[in-house]
Queue: 4 jobs
Job 1
Amino acid sequence: MSPMADNFARAVEDGLRLAKRIYFGKDRSVAPPKPPVSMDKSVSSYLYMPTAPMVYAVISDPAIVDNPDIPSYQPHVHGRCDPPALIPLQMNGITLEVDCYLDTAFLTVTGSWRVHCVMGSRSCDCRIAIPMGEEGSVLGFEVDISRKSYCTQLIAMEDRDVEKVVRAEDGGFLKPHIFTITVPQVDGGSNLFIKASWSQKLVYEDGQFSLSVPFSFPEYVTPAGKKLSKKEKIRLTVNAGTSTEVLCNKTSHPLKELKRQVGKLAFLYESEVLSWSSNDFTFSYNVSSSRTFGGMLLQSPRTHDIDQREMFCFYLFPGNHQSRKVFRTEVVFVVDISGSMRGKPLDDTKKALLSALSKLSPEDSFNIIAFNGETFLFSSSMKLATNEAIDNATEWVNINFIAGGGTNILLPLNQAIEMLSGGTHDSVPLIFLVTDGSVEDERHICDVARSHLTDQKSICPRICTFGIGLYCNHYFLRMLAMIGRGQYDAAYDGDSIETRMERLLNRSTSTVLSDIVIDTLNDLDELEVYPSPIPDLLSEGPLIVSGRYRGKFPDTLKARGILPNMNNCIVELKVQRAKDLPLDKVLAKQEIDLLTAEAWLSQNSELEKKVAQMSIASGVISEYTEMALLEIPQKQEIPSKVSAQKLVDSKEQKIIRKLGLGFGNIRATAENIPPGLEAAKLPEAAEIFVKAASNCCGKLCEYCCCMCCIQACSRINDQCAIVLTQMCTALACFGFIECCAALCCSDSDGR
C-alpha cells in the first residue's frame, strides 16, 4: 500500500477510536461504531480503505467530537490530532444509477450523510471518498448543505504556481481507483446531500460484459439508535449499441426487469433495509454471437461541441470460443531490469512473464530481452515454445532478472524489431515492452518505430506496452502502442502489477483479425480516426474506433481484414444513427487520451488547447485542465462551463487540483527511484538547519583531501589536538548561530 493510502487508513483507525467519545444516551443497546478486527497489521490497513462511497469528518481538535443532539459534557481533551483523524459519517440514504453504453458505464451516486460526531456549535471539514471500478474516471461532484452548496468544474490550466493554492488533502487520487475531495467547514449535526459521477470500463470476457461497482458499506456507517429501515436503490440501463439481443447473466442484487428491447435492458432494485449493502454491485450480460459482427453508429455534434464535424463510431465484436481461431504467436518480451524495478515490481513482472510462457503452445515462438543501460538476450534467435525451451527460459529469467543500472529503451526495441522482421506469414509478431521509467529520447523512439514498421511488407510487428508506476511517460507508451497497432495498459500502484500485466498478455496474444481497413472511409472530407492505424480485433474484447468527418456517409460499409488462416475476411457493417446513446460522452475519454499522446509527440500547443476544451466540455480530466471546487452563492444555479472560470477567479474558489498522470519523471528514472517511493522532502526548517550546520565543514573540505587530514592528525601532539577540538567546537557554534538566524530572520522564500 502506498504511504498516502497507509496514512489515510491510520487516520480512519484513529477516527474510529475517537468516535468512542460520542454519547448516544442512556440506552445501553446503542453503542459507538465497532472498528473491524484483524490480527495482521498489514491486512488491517486495507480494512479501513473505502469499499463504497464514504464521507469522513476531518478532526484536528478532538475536543469537538461529541453528539450534536445529546451533549455528553465529557472532560476536555488537550492536544491536537496531527495528522487529523477521520471519523466515518453515518449514512441516511443511497441511490446508485448505472448507464452502460458499448464498453463504458456511467455511474452516479446520490446519498445523504450526517455529521453525527461534531458538536452543534462547532464545524469541521468533510472528506468524500469514491472508490471506482475498472479504469475509473471521476466526472464531477455536487454537494448541498443547509446554508451553502458546492460543485466541481474543470477549468483550463494556467501558468500560475498551482502548488501554492493546492493541498494534498483537498482532493485527488488516494489510490488509482479511489478519488477524494474535501468540503470545507460543515457544521456539526448538518446533513450533506452529495451527488458524485464517474465512468468506468466494462470488462469483456468470453462474449460477455461485466460490471463491478464498489458498494460494500462497513457496519459503522449505519446510523446508531433503533433499527429503522432505510432506502437503498439501484437503477441500471444497458444500451449495447448493437442490433443483437442482450441477455442478463448474473447480478449481485435482486434486480427487477423493467424493459427488454433489441440491444437494450433496464432494471431496478429498491428496498427498505435495516443495514446497508455489504456486497459490491456486480452485473454481467451477453452480446456474443457465433460469428464476428460489427456496425457503424453516426451522431451529429451538440451545439456547444467545439468540433462541429459529424461523429462516427465503428465497432467489431469477436465470435465465441467455439468458432474462433487465433493467430500463431511470435513474441519478444522486452523487460526493464533497471535499479528502480528492484523488489515487488520486478518480482511481479517475472511471475506474469513466466505465466505467459506457460500458456504458449508448441507452435508459438518467443524470446526475452532484459535491459537496463545494456541488453541481455535469452537467445540470439526466436525459440519454439517447447517444454525444454520454457524451462531454460525460466532458469535464465531467475538468473538474469537482477535489478540494477540505468534505462535505455531504444536499443532493446531495435533488437526486437530486427528479430521479428523476418517472421513467417501465418503469425502476428508481437513485442511486449515493460518499463517503469522515462527516458529523454522518447520522441525519437516513436519516430524510429514508425519508420521500421511502415517498411514491413508482411504483417508488421505489433508493439504492446505496459507501464509501472507514475515515473514512466504513459503517453509515450500509449503512442508507441498506437504506432505499433498494439495494446497499452498500466499499473499505477504495486498492488495490481501482476494481474493487469497477465490480462494484457492474454489480450495481446488473442488476435483473431489483423490489418483491418474500412472501405470508402478515406473518401470522406476532413477525416480523423482514433486510434490510427486501426488495431487488430482480439478475442478478449471488442474493437471500438471513433472519429470525425465532413461529407455524406455511405449507407453501407465493409470492414476487411486477415484471418489466422491468412484468408481475407469481409464484415458487412450496418450504418445507423445512434439513438439514446450519447456517443460524445462514451468516446470522450478515449479521444482525449489519444489526442494528448499526439499533442505530446508533436509538441503542438493548438492541439493541447483542443484537448483542454474537450476535457471541460465532457468533464473528463486531462493533462491540460484542473478541477476546482466552487462555492455556489445562495439562490444561484450550478454554473455553466463558460461561467465556471469567473467563479474560479472570485472568492468562492475553494480548491484547484491537477489530476493528470504527467509526462514521466526523467530525474527519478535516472536516480533509480522505485515507483511511488520518491524520497520525502525535508521540512523547510530542517533543510535550513542541515545546510547551515554543514556549510562550514563543507567549505573546509574543499581545501583539503581526506588523506591530508589523516596524515596531519597522526602527527599532532595532545596540546594541538585540544586546540583543534576547541576550534572545531567554536566553528560549530558559529554554524548554529547562522542556522538560528536563517530560521528566525528568513523571508517567506527561506532566504
Job 2
Amino acid sequence: MQLAVVLTEKTQHPMIFLSGLGLWALSTWIGTFIVCGRKSLSTNFPYFQRFSRISPQNRRLILLSWSASSIFFLRLLFSALKVFTLLVFFTQVNEKDENLSWKAIGYRRPDPKAIDGDENTEQSGPLCNGIIELNRSKDVALNKLQRLGFPVSKPISKKSKIKSLNPSFIIKCDAVVVGSGSGGGVVAGVLAEAGYKVLVLEKGSYVARNDLSLLEGKTLDEMYLGHGVLGTRYMDILMLAGSTVGGGSTINWSASIRTPPHVVKEWSQNHKLELFGSEKYQKALDIVCKKMGVQSEFEHEGFNNMILRKGCEELGYPVETIPRNAASDHDCGFCCLGCRDGKKKGTSETWLVDLIESGNGVILPECEAIKVMINEKDGRTAAGVAFTFENDHGQRETAIVESKVTVVACGALSTPPLLKTSGLKNPNIGKHLHLHPVVMAWGYFPADSWPEAEKKSYEGAIMTAMSRIVSNSEESGYGAIIQTPSLHPGIFSALMPWRSGTDIKNRLCKFSRTAHIFALARDRGSGTVNATNDISYRVEDSEEENLSRGMEKALRILAGAGAEEIGTHHREGRVLNVKESSREELEKFVKEESSRRLKYLENPVCSAHQMGSCRMGVDPKSSAVNPMGECWEVEGLFVADSSVFPTALGVNPMVTVQATAYCTAQSLVQFLAKNK
C-alpha cells in the first residue's frame, strides 16, 4: 500500500507513468509475457500467467535480465522497482515508530526525547514566535501579521494580472524572500536587521525541534524536495534537496568549506566577476563562518570518517579535517534528518533567528510561490509574489505579497521554473545546471575488527575527513574530492546492488558495519531545469573519467583501512574478500570496478548539490543575473541561492552560498535605501 502511494501520489516525474504502465502489464498474463518473455511461461496449461504466479527463481532471473537489458524501458523499470520497494520497506514504521528489520541489521534511531537542546532555548526552537501558519487558522494568522506590522487588505485592484489570480488577500512589506535556506535565510536576516519589513515564503513545512522524529522515511517525506524521491529525466542521477524551513542547511551534513582559491580565481578572472576576488567577498566568508560557528575540532570521529582517514594515512594520500557548522561534541549522525538539539547552526538557528528577533520579519511555511508579480505600468519592475496555500478547510487559496524588492532563493531546481512561469525570457534561466555527480564504494568491517565494535556506520559526525588526492585543484581545477556520506537503511538499501532476495538481505545484515566513501566530481558539463520534476542532465566523459579515478582511490582507501570486503554499487554487485585475495587480485578488482561505465543505469549516480541554473555574469547573453544578483530583465528582482554560481564549485556549497547571498543582501540594502 505504501509503495502504491509513493508511486501514484508522491512521485512527480515525467517517466513515472512508464513504471505504472509496466506494473499494470505485469498484472496481466499477456503483459507479463510481453515484458518477461519465455521465462514467464508455465509448464501447465494455459501456460501464460501473471508475474505474481511465476516461480521465485524465474522472477529473479527476469529481474536480473531487465537490469542488463538493451531496452532502456526495462532497465528503468528494474531501477524504479528496486529503489522504491527497498526504500519503502526499510523506512516504513509501525505505530511504535519501529521497523522489525532494524534489529536484524543493527540499526537503532536515538530516542528523540533523550536529546537535550540548548538549555537557554525552548525545544520548539527559536523561530516559533515568527512562524505564521495559514493552514491552521487563516484569521488568526492574518491578525498576527497585522500586529507584527505587515498590513493585510482585501484585493480591490482592477489590474488584470491581480484580478486573474483571484487572491484572498494582499500582504505588504519591504522585501519578500522566496526560500529560507542558505541563500534566502541570509538575505532575510540581513534586511530585517537593517530595519526593513521582510516576509519569507517557504514551500516546505516548519518542523520544530521537538517535533523532529529522526525517522528516515518521515523526514524524507516532510523535509526533502519531491518527498526525497527526485531524479533526472531518465533517473540516471538521484538527487537530494531540502524543502523545509532552513532549506538544505537544516538537513545537510554540516560541511562548511570556504570557496576554494582556484574557484575564486576562475570566477573573478575568467568570468570577470570582480566581487569574488574582492576584499568584500573575503569579509563575507569570515562573517558567515563566524555566524555559523564554523570550526574543525571533533571529540569522537565517526565510523566512516575514521576509515577514510586511516586508509589515506596508510596509503600516503593527503587527508584533511573538514570544518563544520557544529560544536566539537556534536556527533549524532542524524543531522540529515534535522538537528534536534540545535547544535548544527543552519539558517534556522542563525540568520532566521536574526529575522525573528529583529521584530521585522515573519516566515510563512507551506506557502508555494507561483509567480513573481511584474509592475503592469512599466513591465520590468518586480512588484511582489503570488503564492498558494492550503487553508484550514483543506482548500487551496491564492494570496499576494506586494513588496519593494523581491528575492527568489528557491534553490537551483526550483528558482528557474518560478522565473520562467513569471514571464522572464532570458535563455540562460534553467541552463548550465551543475550537480556534483557522486559515486560510492563500500567496505565491510566485521564487529570483531577495527573500528571498535560499538562503532556504527550511521553514527558519529557525518563529515570530518576529506581527501583531495584526485581534485586537480593545482592544475585544471576539475577533478574529484573524496568524502563520506550519511546513509540510513532506506537510502542504503536503494543504492546497494540487488542480485537476489537472499543477497540483499545479507548485504543489509552488514549495514551497521559497512562504511561508504564517495567521489564527488566538479562537473564541467551541465544540464537543464525545465521544471522541478523535469531535469535533464548527462554525465560527460570527462566527469566519468574523474569519477573513475575517485572510485579507484575510494576502493584502495577502504582496503588500506582494513576492510574485509569491498565493492561498489554497480548492478553486477561484485564483492572482493580482501583478506583472502592476493595483491594481484586486489589490483585487478580495483581496476575493473573503477573503470565500469556509469551511464544507462549501470551504477547509481547521486547528487546532493545543485547549482548554476541562473548563473551570475557580466553579460545578459551568457548569464541570468548581474554581479549584484539582480535579474537582467526585471528591476528589483534578485536571485540569492546556489543557482547563481558561474560554474560548479567542487566542494560542499553552503559557505559559498551564504557568502554570495550576504553580498547580494548588501546590494539590496543599498537598493532599498535608494528607492525609499
Job 3
Amino acid sequence: MAENGEQRGEKCVRIEKELPIAFGNFTNQENWDFFYAARGAGNFSEWYADWPQLRTLLRNHLSFPPSAPPPEELSILVPACGNSRLSEHLYDDGFRNITNVDFSREVISAMMKRNLRERPGMRWRVMDMTDMQFASGTVDAIIDKGGLDALMEPNIDPRLGTIYLSEAKRLLKAGGKYICLTAAQSHVLGLLFRKFRFGWKVNLYAVAQEPSSGTTKQRAFMFIAEKYILTVVSQISFMDECSVESHGNQVRELFEALERENTVRAEYSNGTDTWHSLNDLNQGVQGNIGVLEPGRAVNLFLGETGVSRFFYSGLLLDGRPLPIPFSHQYGVLFVYSMQTFHGLLTSSPRSWALAICHKAARLLIVVLDANHNVLANDIESDIFRFIKQLAPGDNIEEDKIVITYADEGYKQKKNLYKVTSTLTGPIAIDDVIYFDPPGDIPTPGKSKDSIFRRLRFGRTEAFARSEALLSTQVENKKVPAASRTLKKGKPRMFESQPSDSQASSGDTKVDHKYLSSGLYKGLLSGLLLFSVHSKRTIPAGRLVKTVIIGLGAGLLPMSLRNYVPTLKIECVELDLVVLNVAKEYFSFEEDDSLKVHITDAMKFVKERAGINSSKIDVLIIDVDSSDSSSGLISPEAEFVEEPFLLAAKDSLSDKGLFILKLATGYPGVRAAVHSKLQMVFSSNLFSMPVDEGYSELIFALKKESPVIGEEELTQACEALRRSLEHNSGDWIKQTLVVSKNIAPLRKS
C-alpha cells in the first residue's frame, strides 16, 4: 500500500480556494499547463471532496454482477484527471485497470512520474475529454470528478458538455456506469437530466462533508447513471443526508429541479410499449418462444451487464403463412436508423410487410444507433449468443441463421469527403445511385442512374442527414432549391429546389428543380397558408424576417429563398465546419436575403426577444437530436424545454409564426411536448403529419386571438388556392394538397 500523500509532505491544493481569479477559462489548455507547471509533481488538487468522503459510495457502485470482471479487471476511465489522487486511491483499493486522461501534457507527465514505481499498471494519456480515442462499448465505469462542471462554465461554448457526455455514453459497456462529482449547478444538472433519460438508471447522492468543514460550504453531489435498456425511462432516486434548512438555496434548487425532472419522466413513460428481456421470453411470458407462433410480434431487448458490450432493442416477428414456402426458418435484420425502427413499431402493416419481404418464418429486427459505432463483425460477435437463443426449434445450425443489414437500396456509393469537427464530430459526404430512385425526378436528364448527394453526421445518434439530387443538365438560371432531410434507412423525400452554383468537380451540380414530398413540402405549405390567413402585408422594401435554427446542407433555406422571394432568411448554426461543407458541396450561397450566424441558438433567440426592431416573423426549428436517450429523434431536447419556448415566443413579431419538426417513437414524449407547447402558445397551435404520420410539423401563432378553428383553416386553404391559381408548376398543386392536412392540435 502506498503512503498517504500528506504523510510524505505533499501539499493538497483546494482548487476552489487556491485558483487565482485571473485563471479564467477552465477549458483553456494553456491555463491548466501554467497552473500545473507552477505547482510541480509534489502537489495534488481535489475538487469538492476527498477520498474518505467518496470511498464507500464509489466502492458500492463499482460492484457489478458476478458475470462482470472482478474489481482488479474492471475498466475504469478518469477523464480530466488533473493532479487529483482519486485514481491513486482507487488503485490502492484494488481497482488496477485504470486509464487517466487530461489535455494538459504538464499534468500527465507529472502524474506519470509520481506513480511510475508505486502504481506501474496505471495508464496516463494526453487526450481531450470531448474527443476520447477509445473504442465504443469498452469501459465499465467513468469517474468524473469536476470535469463536466469545468466544461460547463456559463461563458464558454455550451455544446462542449453535450459533446463530452455523448462521448462518455458511447464508451460505456452495457451496464456501465457514469459517475459524476458535481456542484449540481442548475445548467449542469439540466444537461445531466436530459442526457440520461431513456435507457439509464439514475441515482443522485449528497456527498458527506469533511468534519471540519461546517455547514456553510457548498455541497458536492454524486450523479450515477447506469447504462440500461434504451426503451426504458425511470425515476431518479435521491439519497440525501442534508437538509434544506442547513444548506439553503443550493439544496432547495436541487430538490425543485429533481421534482420537475421526475414529473417529466413520469409523463414520458406514459403510453410506452411493454418490452421483454430474453429471460422474460424464456420464462414463457409470450408463450413458448422456441416454437413458431404465426402472427406473434414481440418488442424485446437483448444484452447483459458483464456479458455484452452493448444493449440492443429488437422486434421479433413470427411470419404468417405465405402462398409460397418461406425461404428460411430464421432471419436477422440489422437496421441503422432509430426513426425507421420506431416507424416499424408504430405501424403494424409496415413491419409485417418487411417480414413478408424477407421470407423468413421468424424475423428478428435489431436497431443500431451511433452508440454501436463498431464493425459489423464486432456487432455480430457481441449479440450472436442472444440471437441463437431466439431461434425457433432446437439446435438450429449457425449457418442456417440468415443475417442481413438494411441498406438504402443503392447500387453505387462514392465517398467524397470526410472531416471531423470539434463541435459536430465526424461529417461525411457521399454520392449514391439508387436502384429505385426516390421521388419525382425532373425530366430533362431523368435517369434511373440519378445521383444523390448525402450529408451524414456521425455523432448524431439518429444518423440524420440531408440529401440533394445532382444533375449535369441544370439550366443556367436561379430557380428553387431541391432537398430532403432523412434518417439512415429507406429514403424519404422532403421538398426543395434549384440553384445554379456548382457542387462538385466537372459539370455536376445540385439540381434545385427536384421536387419531393414530405417535410419541406409541408413546411412550405404551412408557411404560405398562415401568411395568407394572417393577411400579412409587406410594405415596399420590407421582407419577412425568417430565422432557421440549424443549417445542415443549407437546402431548406435555399429552397425557401427561391420559392418565397419575400423572405429575408437568417440561419443560426453553431459550427463553422458545417457552413463550409454546405457551401463547398451543396451549392449553399449567402446573399443580401440569406445570411448565416455562427452562434448558439438560445443566445441568438434571447437577444432577438429583447430588441423590438429585430423581432422575427417566422422562426423555424430544423435540428435533429444528437441523443436518442432524450426520447426524441427531432428536435434536440433543449428546443422543447420551457425556457427556449418562452424565449422563442418573445422573439416573434405580433403576427409571428413558430414552426417545429417533432419526431419521436414514444407517445408519452409526444404528449409531453404537446403539453409544453400548449402551455406557452395557448390557443393557436396546429399540426401536420409527415413521413407517413411518424413525424409532424407543429405551427404556432404568437397571436392568441382570434382562435383559428377547422372552419377558418378551410377558408384559409381556399384563399391560398385563389392566391396561387395564376401560378404554374407541380409544386403549386402539391402545396395546395398538403395544406389541407393541417389541423388544430388537440389538447393532450
Job 4
Amino acid sequence: MLTCGRYLSSAAATTPSLSPLRTLTCSFLRRHPLRFLSSASAAAATTAVQPDTRGKNPRTPKMKPSLILSYHHLSRVGLGTGGGGGGAGGGATTPKWKAAIDFKWIRDNRDAVATNIMNRSSVANLDVVLQLYDQYLALQKEVERLRAERNAVANKMKGKLDPSVRQALVDEGKNLKESLIVLEENLVQLTDKLQLEAQSIPNTTHPDVPVGNEENSAVRKEVGSQRKFSFTIKDHVQLGKDLDLFDFDAASEVSGSKFYYLKNEAVLLEMALVSWAIAEVSRKGFTPLITPEIVRSSVVERCGFQPRAQNTQVYSIDGSDQCLIGTAEIPVGGIHMNSILPDSDLPIKYVAYSHCFRTEAGAAGAATRGLYRVHQFSKVEMFILCRPEESDKYHEELITIEEDLYASLGLHFKTLDMATGDLGAPAYRKYDIEAWMPGLERYGEISSASNCTDYQSRRLGIRFRPAPSEPPLATNSKKGKGGSSGPTQFVHTLNATAVAVPRLIISILENFQQEDGTVVIPEPLRPFMGGLGVLSPKTK
C-alpha cells in the first residue's frame, strides 16, 4: 500500500475545503496537473533492468495499490528490471503485479539514489518518479479531504432536518460522490504510472563495490596458476572432435546455431558434474530440487528479468504468459511467493538442478565458440532466503562454496568483486569466478554469486515474522496478541552457481589435456563416472 499520506507538498496542504464536483475537480487539476506518461514513456520504463526497496508507515490509508519501499542499510532502492508487469514495448500502463517501494525513502535520499543510477548505467528516470510521487501525494490528500467531507455530510443527515436542508445535503453528498469517483480513478491511474516508472530503479549497491565498468572490477582472490604445456594445445572444440564428445553440425541442422549434442563420455561428464555438485552442496544443509523449466512471465519479471524487452535473454512462449527459464533462480525464487515465513524456518537453502534457456541476443565473436555461449545448458544453482542482517554472511558462504568446489577440481581461477556497471538490477553485490581456459587463451566466467538483499522479495512478496525478543506474557496469550504478532519484514535472497555444465566441461578438457590426446578426469568426479579416470580417442 502507498503509505505516505502524511507527507504532503505545501501546495496540497493549502487545498480549500468543501466544494461541489466540477469546481472541486477543476480547481484541483489546475493546481496539480496530472502529467501522465505517454505509453511510449511507460514502455521505456519497463525496459529498464532491476529494482527494490522497503519501508512502512503506520498511518496507512485504505487504498489498494501496494507501493512501499525500504531496504537493509544501503539496500533501500531497487525495483526495476523493466517489465514492471506492464509488458515492455506493449504500451500498457497497468502493472500486472506491484512491488513494495518506499517512495519517501527515495525522495529523502535523492542524491544517493541518483548517484547509484548513474554508477550502474541504469535507464531509470528519477526525476519522473519523484514528480509522479509528488502528484500522487497531492491527489491522495484531495481524495482524503473529499472522503472526510462526504462522511461529515452523512453524519449531518442523521438528525431531524427541514426538508429543504436535507435535500441540500443530499445534493451535496451526490456531488461529493461523483467527485470522488473521478479523483479515485485518477489516483489509480497515477499509482500505476508511478509503479511502472519506479520499477526501473535498480537495487542499491554495497559501499565496497568498485565504481565503473567490468574492467574496473577488483580481484578478490586467485587460486592456482596457469598450467605450462610442453606441447601444442587444443581448444575444447578440437578436443571434443578428436574424442567424439560433441556434434555441433547435427545440432545446427536440427535446432539451429548455438545448440549441441553431447556424446559418449561427455554425457557421463555432465551427469557427474551435476551429481557431484548436488552431493557436495547438500552436505552443507541445502535442500535438493529439480525445478519447473517453464514459468509465468510475471515471476520472471519479479525476479528482475525482462522477458519481453528488446535484446532479452528470455525465451517467451507465444500465445501464453509463460517463459522458459534462464536459471533455476527464477522458479526457486517463486516457491515462497506471497507468503510469510516463520522466523524459525530461516535460513532456507536450496540447491536446484535445471536446464536453462537463453537467447544470447547480441552475443557474437570468439567468445561464442563451441560450448562457451549456447542457447540450452544444464546448471546447478544455489539459492538462500535469510534474515536481512545475515545476507552478507551468507554471500560469503556461497562464494566460499564455489571456490572450494573449483579448487577441488584443480582449476586455476580468480574471484572478482564486480564493478557497478556490471551489476544486474537485483544485485546489491556480485562476485564472479573466472577460470583459465588455455585453449581459448583467456579467462572465462564459470559462476557468479549475488546478494540481492530485499530486491526480489519485495517484488515476490516474501516476508518473515521475526521471533519475539521476549516470551509473550500470560495475559497476552490471546490470538493476535504478544510478541508473535510483530510486524513482518522482507527476507533477503541470494543466488550462486554451483555448476554451469558447459563452462566446466571447457575448463576440464582444456586444462587437463595430455600430449597423447587424452584428457584426465579430476579425481572428485571419477566416482560419478563409474571410476573412469581418462578420456581417450576412439579407436577406428
